[in-house]
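One such shown below:

_____
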Amino acid sequence: MKIITPDYYKNFVCIAGDCKHSCCIGWEIDVDSSSFEYYKTVGGDFGYRIIDNITADENSLPIFK
């Protein structure tokens, strides 16, 4: 397999709502069941942020907001 990435790939950081481009608009980030179970065990502020940013899709499967 050959993987091609832009030269700036390693330095890329998504700025989400501050971005003026639309390359990821409409994307859905699925959360598999084992990851979801793990996320529920993460404690502290970070664990809360993860769970607070997961919702369910039309099939009641977990996805990131």
